[in-house]
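BUG: 3D viewer hangs when loading the predicted structure for this chain

Environment: internal workstation, default settings.
Expected: structure renders.
Actual: progress bar stalls at 90%.

Input used:
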Amino acid sequence: MALIDAQKFYKDLEKGQLAPLYFLFGEEPYLLNQSVERFKYAVLTEGAVDFNYSLFYASDADVNVVRDAVETLPMMAARRLIILKEAQELTDKEWAELETLIETPVDSSVFVILASRVDKRKKQIRLLLDKADCVEFKKPYENQIPSWINYIAQSLGLTISNDAIQLLHKLVGHHLTEIESELKKLGDFVGGNRRIEMADVAQAVSRSKEENVFDFTKAIGENDRVKALEHLVHLLDQGQNEIGIISLVARHVRILLTLKRGAEEGLHGAKLAHYAQVPPYFLESYLDQSRLWTMKKLEQTLVVLSETDKALKSSPLSSHIWLENMVLKTCGSNSSYSLS
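C-alpha cells produced before the viewer hung:
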C-alpha cells in the first residue's frame, strides 16, 4: 500500500470504505487522536461498542493480548476495532509477534497502529508501509494554524472572531492539542454565549508556557540583544523546537516590515492593523518596535533568518550556536558575526 492523502482517508472513513489494517503516524497528537474518534464513528455500532472495541498503549500492552483482540470475531457487528497507540515503543521482539497480523490482516477487524515517530529503515516499519493503508499526519504550517483554530472551535460548537484567532495563535503557538485544550477552556469561560472574542482570549488563556517565545520575539523586535539572549537560553532549556523559534521570529519580523510599509502608505489605526494582519490590541507595541528598524535592516534580518533555518536543518554544529549567532547578527550593535 502507498501512503494515502489525509483528505482521501477521511472521505473513505465517512463512506465506510474500511481496510483491515492501518498505520497512522506523525508528530501532531491532535490529528492522531482525532483519527481514532473518526474510526470509532465509522466502525462501531451503537449497543455493541463494549464487545468490539479495544484500545492498547504499546508501552504497557501485552502484544499477545493485542493479537488475540485482532483475531477475535466481532459480536453483533461487521467488524471489531483495535487501536494500538505509541507503536514507536514496541521492541523488535514485540514487532515480530505482530508480523503475522501485518502480513495477513484479519478481514473481520480494523486494526489501527499509531506512532508519533517512525524509523523507516526498520524492517517492521517497511513491512507496515507495504501492507497497511498508511497516513502521515504532518504538523500544519504556521500560516495554516488560524484555519485550524477556526475548525477546532467549530468542532466544539464555538464561533471565534478573527482577532481572537490571531491572539490565541500568538499566545498558544502552533500545537493543535494545546489549541484544542485552550479552546475547551474558553468554551467554559464564555458559557452559553459560545462566541469567543479577543477580550475572552486575553483574560482566559494562560501565557505561562509560551510567554518566553512571546518575550523572545518582542526582545528581538526591541533590538535588545541582552534580553533576547536571556530568553533564548530559557527557550532552549525548555526544549523548544529550534525551527519553530526561527519561524516565530520570522513571522514577527515580517509583521514589523509590513507595518513600516503600511505606515509609509499613510495607513494607521484599524486599517494599518488589518493591513499587517495583527490584532489592534497589539498594534502600538508592534509600531514602537518597527520604529527601531530600518526597512533595509528588516529585509536583511529575514535573509539571516532564512540562512539560520537552513543551517539548523543541515549543519552538524549545535543549534544553539546558530541561534545565538542569529541574535548577534540581528540585535543591538552593527558588529558582524559569522560562522562561515
